[in-house]
Write a structure and sequence with these properties.
Blueprint (H helix, E strand, L loop, with lengths): L1 E5 L19 E10 L2 E10 H33 L7 H10 L4 H14 L1 H14 L9 E6 L4 E5 L2 H10 L14 H8 L5 H14 L5 H7 L5 H14 L2 H10 L5 H21 L2
Antiparallel strand pairs: 1-5, 2-3, 4-5
Helix pairs in contact: 1-4, 2-3, 6-7, 7-9, 8-9, 9-10, 9-11, 10-11
């Protein structure tokens, strides 16, 4: 994901699909939010095919959440059948009258929430599936907004570059944006947080692109054990003479977990080479 900041109400979205960059058969999806009681809306282009696919994914998510929520609803509702003696009005009234005693009020509120679980859990699951943070399924999302800027998150790096080119006031400037996913995650290997470096290493491994060999060799010498383990596994997936050399050196790593990952990667490489021989 790439985050780009732009002046409010000056956003210009390029007329290409924000997911696949085609310029034909376009429609839009809306990003909406409220600020100071004023409603904002921007329409982001997307081709009909990509929009259909994204909406299908959302419906699938809704179906899964509903399948989880329904049994919980009925099982807890069945449990409540055994508590007919509860007076809801009396319980709520007791909470109101217990204002002098905070501990009693907290206990009563907890009891009330437990009793409402059959309703709250399904509602929460369904809200998670269909809430219009349903932006979450779109390739462009609104991250935050204030008086000085709106910040959008872009799943598609080339589209982010087109957006920056169309909005000269945006930051970061075009020259600071990575050209591809490979460039983005290679840059993230320099991050001070090891979890970010580890995520970048795993993503580079998932690309299975021979061009990731250099950054992964860099990662296998990282100060974090977790990053070195991820790099060893990734190099084992990609293979090649340079990966073989780096993994052989990693067998002497100070961490036994890294050494173990390197040996396992070499074992997988040898197995694949043997199976590929005529």
């Amino acid at each position: 994901m790439i985050e780009v900041s732009v002046r409010p109400k000056s956003e210009k979205f390029p007329s290409t699909c924000s997911n696949c960059l085609v310029e034909t058969d376009l429609t839009t999806y809306a990003l909406k939010w409220k600020k100071d009681k004023e409603e904002y809306r921007v329409d982001v282009p997307i081709c009909k095919s990509c929009k259909k696919t994204r909406l299908r994914e959302t419906r699938k998510k809704f179906a899964i959440y509903f399948a989880i929520a329904a049994p919980i609803f009925w099982s807890l509702a069945y449990f409540l059948d055994y508590l007919p003696q509860i007076s809801w009005y009396g319980l709520i009234n007791a909470i109101v009258e217990a204002s002098a005693n905070i501990i009693v009020r907290v206990i009563l509120i907890v009891i009330l929430l437990i009793l409402l679980l059959p309703v709250l859990i399904p509602l929460f699951l369904l809200y998670s599936a269909i809430s219009p943070s349903g932006e979450a399924n779109w390739p462009v999302k609104k991250v935050k907004s204030n008086d000085l800027s709106n910040v959008f998150s872009f799943e598609n790096i080339p589209y982010a570059r087109l957006f920056v080119a169309a909005n000269p006031s945006s930051t970061p400037p075009l020259e600071d944006l990575p050209l591809s996913l490979l460039d983005l995650h290679t840059k993230r290997l320099q991050h001070k947080d090891w979890t970010v470096r580890n995520e970048a290493t795993m993503t580079l491994g998932n690309l299975k692109d021979p061009r990731t060999i250099n950054p992964l060799i860099q990662a296998i010498n990282d100060e974090s054990d977790a990053v070195r383990i991820s790099a060893a596994r990734a190099l084992g997936d990609i293979g090649g003479p340079r990966a073989l050399e780096a993994l052989t050196q990693a067998k002497e790593d100070k961490s036994r977990w890294v050494r173990r990952a390197a040996r396992q990667a070499l074992k997988e490489l040898n197995k694949s080479e043997t199976s590929n021989k005529p």
